[in-house]
Design brief:
heterodimer; A: 211 residues; alpha+beta; six-stranded antiparallel sheet; B: 162 residues; four-stranded antiparallel sheet
Chain lengths: 211, 162
Amino acid sequence: MNNDNETCVTNPVIRKGALEEVGNIGAAHAATSLSKMVGEEIFVSVTDSHILRVEELPEFFGKMDDIVVAVFMDINNTVNGAIMLIFPKKNAIMLGNTVLGEDDDQSAVTNDTLVTENIELAMAEIGNIIGCSYLNVISKMVDTVLIPSPPGVAVDMLGAILQVPASMIGLESELATVIETSFVRKRDTFSGFVLFMPDKKIQESLIEQFC
Amino acid sequence: MEMERSDIVGVGDFKLAGPGETLGCIGLGSCIGIILHDRFTRFGGIAHAMLPFYEEGRDRSRPAKYVDTAVYVLIDALVEKGVTRRNINAKLVGGASMFSFRASDILDIGNRNIRAAHRTIEVERIRLLSEDVGGNHGRTITLDMDSGAVTIRTSRDEHRII
């Protein structure tokens, strides 16, 4: 019994399945909350998921010096891990504009467009909503209260931003899970990543739910 | 200026180079780039360290992941190349606090990395020539072996040479 459980918890197919299930439920909750906030329908869907080693994290997403917008929240004061959203700069501005109701001319947005303070605030709020949606789902599954910190926003090089969660996980040499998420409103699609980094205990009890 | 892939030092790694060559790190955030160089032989190296102390993970396969062991292996590798120990000079770049909204201990990893680097370099009696550390922005660096100059480009699109 114990042995079966071991194989199940470490089985990569089951891990990926568990992750995607969490991602899908979290995405559904996030879509509801976001739609309420914006006042029109926004769809959130999970397009792929990955489990990566700490060292692979910074180089996984694309070019290390691409400028991205990231929202970071730790869980229970870092005791139980962290959750982070990463958007390519252009997608973040367009998603921020949508939430702010300033989306008349999105075609003018390029990677050189400045990320204003209002966009940063909008992204913090979006991060908060999505982070809480995922954590609510996971809290129920693992029967542990998971409280996120207030969101922090950074606009910087991808490599530089990813070093923060990588060094946090590095402290306990754990794996990171990445859920690729896309947001759809009318004809616009904004893709981003949700990086979920639970501590070992949460990670294992989460996967046990699927064994 | 595009760097060759082989010239880039990835997270937790270190590399050496010699006369006429360059080395670099892309997107140093809370990580710290430890740059050791000898202007006489024009040999040098960069370590891209992620955590302050070896004690915090003890990943034996990647000593350059930790600031303290990164300094040791860089010195030893340079000495093995024939560099005289007392000619080695150090420069430090990185150790930013990317999300400056909180001062919790773990998120202060950038500052902890800087302190660890200062301490280890002092104990090892290596001269610290210059540094560009802290702040809340990412940095990309290139080390020119002939001059020992480190060119820094920040995410705010600033350039400087130390």
